[in-house]
Amino acid sequence: MAPFGTEDRATAAGEPAGPPHGGRRKVARYAVPATVVGVAAATIGIVPALASSGDPDLPAISAQQLIEKIAASDVQQFSGTVRVNTDLGLPDLGGLAGGLGGGAAGGGDGSSADPSAKVTELATGSHTLRVAADGPDRQKVSVLEDAAEYSLIHHGKDVWGYDSKSNEVFHTTADDAGRSAPGKDKPGKDGHGKDGHGKGERGAENFTGTPKDFAEQALKAAGPTTSVTVDGTAQVAGRDAYKLVIKPKQSGTTVGAISIAVDAGTGVPLKFTLTPKSGGAAVVDVGFTQVSFAKPAASTFDFTPPKGAKVTEGGDRAHQDKGDGPLKGGLPEHLLPTPGGEPGRGPDGLKVIGEGWSAIAAFDTGAKGGVPSGSEVGGDLGGFLDSLGDKVSGKFGKGTVFSTRLVNALITDDGKVYVGAVTKDALVEAADAGK
Description:
Elements lengths: L25 H4 L4 H10 L19 H10 L4 E10 L9 H6 L13 H4 L6 E10 L3 E8 L2 E8 L2 E6 L4 E6 L37 H11 L4 E11 L2 E10 L6 E9 L5 E8 L7 E9 L17 E4 L37 E3 L6 E5 L9 H4 L1 H10 E6 L2 E7 L4 E5 L3 E5 L3 H10 L2
Helix pairs in contact: 2-3
């Protein structure tokens, strides 16, 4: 784990904090293990934050102290309501919604209750979640929909997904979903887990749907290319909080800033907001609208498949193998790119170009001919491709850049892929340099 940035102008302003997760090991489960806190002490300033007029009047705190507070937080019981808003700038999928998002990640014949597919839907639009946790073995996340509800329940060894709209149930076990064996999830030398790449830390059974899931990834990313400051106080879900602000120091990234509202009393992240450098609405905004740290009723985590429901057992699915499925990190990875990437994961031959927030992941698909145009594909898919892609050229040859408000990807006509939270120009430069 790289040290945090040296800029800590702890000023004032901020957002409230949020409830904890159902984590079993407080330091290992947060992305701020003790070793990181120690390094941070030497690299983050200790100028205290002061409250602005109208904000909660809280004791002064430095970024270093606030990070330590998050790391020391051991709240394991909570319940509440979370609002998730994601605006990647994608066009309306229209008729593609079912084809691209429906079914399990492993294929179109999977269960609609498979969490691999369902949780990924949080990457688009606005969603309201009901969340609850009671220790490391009982968590529940319910996605509220029009006249329907999807629930992901972890109770002991069992992990259940239930889609009330289709009356389908997906069942697997905590071990199948990626849960670590005892003693295997302690932070490695880089703070990412035993093997240094996050494997074995958390699986689907520990996805809480709260700002903490997002905050821990952002804190992992903080390094020499990052400025970490405290920017005041505020209230979230009726609780006083400090606001921790993470900003890239590099120029080539599309990330503007990340704000994490940290509960002043518990150290739990209550709100997470990621804004793009281009301005406008937040790309990701996740926050509690209501929260309680009281012990949830035991019945909250009980689940029995309803009569007549189709039950799919997921233990033998390929994407569950060894805990390497889409939820292996507890969060759909495309929602929050990790600066610098993790070279140990991804397609064979993947390499990371650059560092920090300007890092670009590159690999060769081996496919020739480039991305077909919309007219070649036709239909809804053709229109979708045209709405995303821009033809570009350079020393590398020709290719197509697919863009969102945060992540851009260049696919060259000779089958190479360059992707990152960087500008289109940065992708073209990387492709040219790789020639």
